[in-house]
Here is the input.
Amino acid sequence: MAERHAVRRAAAATCSVSGCEEPSARSVSGKEASEKAKLSLKTKGGRAHLCRTHYRTYKKATKGDKELERLAW
Ligand SMILES: [Zn+2]
Here is the structure.
């Protein structure tokens, strides 16, 4: 896993999703996180820091479109 850089950069940050206090694992586009993954963020705009759980939600929401299309065949 190539997570070392991300972890070191985001070490002090917690998840940007409101109500979530998990340490952030990844930072993503705040816009995509709120619009595509329907996550409610504490911060607006810029980057959103997501914990593993919410990153998975985000991943599913952004990548899931393609898989759904593929399944529809
Ligand atoms: Zn979270």
Q: What stands out?
A: The CA atoms of residues 2 and 26 lie 11 Å apart. Residues 15, 17, 20, 22, 50-51, 53-54 surround zinc ion (CB under 6 Å). DSSP finds three helices and two strands in the chain. The helical segments are 4-9, 30-35, 52-71.
